[in-house]
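We append the chain.
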Amino acid sequence: MNNKFFPANFMFIMMMFMGTIMSLSSSHWLMMWMGLELNLMGILPLMNIKSKNFEIESSMKYFIIQSMSSSLFIMSSIFMYLSSISMLSMFNYSLFSSIMNISLLIKLGSAPFHFWLPAMCKQMSWMMLFLILTWQKLAPLFMLSFINYNYVIMIMSSITSSILGSIQAINQSSLQLIMVYSSITHLGWMLSTCFLNNSLMLIYLLIYSTIILPLFISFYKNSSFFTYSLTEQNNHMNKENIFIMSLILSLSGMPPMLGFLSKLMVLNFLLKMNMILLSLLLFIGTLISLYFYLNLMMMMMIKSYFMFKTNMMNMMNMKSIMCINMFSTIIFIPMILYAMNIFHKSQSYWHIMFHFRNLISITSNLLKFNNSYSISTTSIFTKWWSIM
């Protein structure tokens, strides 16, 4: 298949979308299974658009895993139907419902059934990787939420995905593998709410898709496949580092960002349901994943060649950076004074206030230095050193 045959590509895209919609809108397990198969038949040709060897290998791995999980799903649903009186009493048998749960977890690539996902996605294009990590998870997640029996498997898979996905992403040099293990970690958060609140799970998936879509587009435009490519000597790429770093912070769940909102909603809901241990383990997995997110940020900040090219920065930018640092210090000084006032008496408090007044006067001098060159840098740092 080639890029020139656009009508065929459009047909396969419509098959992929219609298969997922069919699985979500049907009320019978056989129709859900047919929707999954239609989705699989639509995405497989899209994975072979350029007909390269690694694309063919990835599509074959994906076909084998999805076919095996679909076979487990339809066999378990047939055995449950034969063992019960009607469709309403299908989930009275824990063995077959557990097999159905496991088959859908294999489709999702959730831990401990996730080993096929990194091996398949490590050489995939960024846009196909986005579809695998977002759209392909929608139907199996909602089908898992329909199974109202045997929640222990989903809870254990949620905990395992959150922790194992974070640990295995450490010391990875491939950006695709880092994003795959990151999606496994976020899948743990989605699994923790899929049997409790479908709306919250959908909001989490939408926020996750919103975050990684511009990130993957940026990686695709810059042809970034490894972590060292983030530090290349490219001025246009380095100017986008602030944009990429904000997306990485949001993906890690830092408080001011959008990714923190989804995690906060899930934690609030789980704590209201008295699932304290599950919330704690998910939070520990997020803390572990914060390591490799901050590692990517440090590579873009410190190792970037653009940061060391001081001749390309004029003096006004350097003074602006100094003023921002001074103001950020002043913001935290009242909190520091309050904390120190708890442990010290009034004499030390007024001594600190005297230093605080001197610091404000130096900052005002520095602001005047931005507008005029009447005050020398040596005099400013002399005054700064005198109050230290």
